[in-house]
Amino acid sequence: MMNRRLPARVLAVSTLALALGACSLAPTYHRPAAPVPDRFPLTAAGNGQADQAAQAVQDTQAGLPAWRDFFQDPRLQALIELALKNNRDLRIAVDRVEEARAQFGIAQSDRLPTIGVQGTGQVTRSPADMRNGGADAKSVNRSYVAGVGMTAFELDFFGRVRNLSEAAYQSYLSTDQARRTVQLGLIAQTAEAYFRLRSAQALHELMDKTLEARKGTLDLVQSRFDVGVASDLDLAQAQSQYDTVRADRIATERAMAQAVNALQLILGTPVPQDLPAPQPFGRAQLLSSLPAGLPSQLLERRPDIIGAEHDLMAANAQIGAARAAFFPRISLTGLLGFASPELDGLFGGSQRYWQYSPQIQMPLFSGGIKGNLDLAKARSNIAVSSYEKAIQTAFREVADGLAGEATYSSQLDALRATEESALKALKLAQIRYETGVDSFLQVQSAQVALYGVQQQFIQLGTDALFNRVELYKALGGGWSADDLPEAS
């Protein structure tokens, strides 16, 4: 009767161990206070726009638009889709999620007993002077055992295994947020590489037009030189102006080729020839300006900050596991089945067999246990500082983006006015030169000024696009589940 009760007792002890595994020595987790101001600088909204800014805050808290709504150029949308499917950095990030998920599965399995079918056989021949029963006893002894067994299952009274499993789970969640960070960065990188290519193309078009204008000026000065009206200096200056633009045009062709190469690396595949027609290069390629005067709590939606908090929670669980190492570890090994000296009679009704082997380990003198706890606490402090630094860095990125949104538009308007003035100055200088009032030096100065302003305008417009993309990224971006690949 006792033999029948013992397996039930073993099962009851195992069940109790699983229930007691809920005990944990990990510190109670409290999210650290964000070491940044409550709100971002209200750089783009004055006192008279407070209500409008408040409404913008509510709209943004509801969620930023998906990337398809933010990036409105159909060619850019097609490029982003290609990058999300083929970029190798993103593939690595997805595979790392799978790696972390497998590691969590391994840690989680330690919380459950390992039960399996076991079978052993042993045949022993003993010399005559070592046989039980003397020289007349059998020289060969056989034994066979088969049954269902449990191997070294730890009774997790103090939550060591549970905290290790929790740490692995939080690491898995952190890795998944790292994948989202890579996805968001990839979208921004694709957009910036595309805008860099479009900027080089815009500069090339500008230089084509400027080169045509400079060729006309050179022909004019040459004709005046041929009739003795223009000097050698005028002709040399006109030729120099023409050659300068021609050299710039060649450099821009190199920049376009390099921009295509950079874009192709990000895409992970050759740039297709059948892409949709692009929109005109400018601010219309992106959603209108993002709101300013935002609460800093919006940073909590950034995947890198979410991931840093999961790292912090993993470190917190590691402290619990390190504390549990100071207490006894109890493990069970058992077997329930049949045993027989003959293989043919192994599974007979009278051959029932059980074995129960508990083991207790209690540390007495071990400096390594104390060192592991100190190590876990140090890593937890590092995780806290990393989490706070991630928030501070994110706050700065958003604040810089908002400052750009508040100033780029006015700066572009000022450059646009400067371009109009420079164009007017060039026309007047050409008239005065053709009528003999001024030398060609005035025309040259006006051409250089206009050319510089036009180049600056294209570059500043590109910087404004980059700033808006970076602000969208700094705020955590926006996407739908159907747009981005998930780890499977």
Automatic annotation (TrEMBL):
Listed GO CC annotations: plasma membrane
GO molecular function, one term: efflux transmembrane transporter activity
Record keyword Lipoprotein present: yes
Family matches, as Gene3D superfamilies: Outer membrane efflux proteins (OEP) (1.20.1600.10)
Keyword Membrane included in the entry's annotation: yes
Keywords annotated in UniProt: Lipoprotein, Membrane, Palmitate, Signal, Transmembrane, Transmembrane beta strand
Signal peptide boundaries: 1-19
Location of region: Disordered: 117-136
Membrane topology reported for the UniProt record: Lipid-anchor
Cellular compartments annotated: Cell membrane
Family statement: Belongs to the outer membrane factor (OMF) (TC 1.B.17) family.
Stated name of the protein: Multidrug efflux system outer membrane protein
Organism this protein belongs to: Castellaniella defragrans
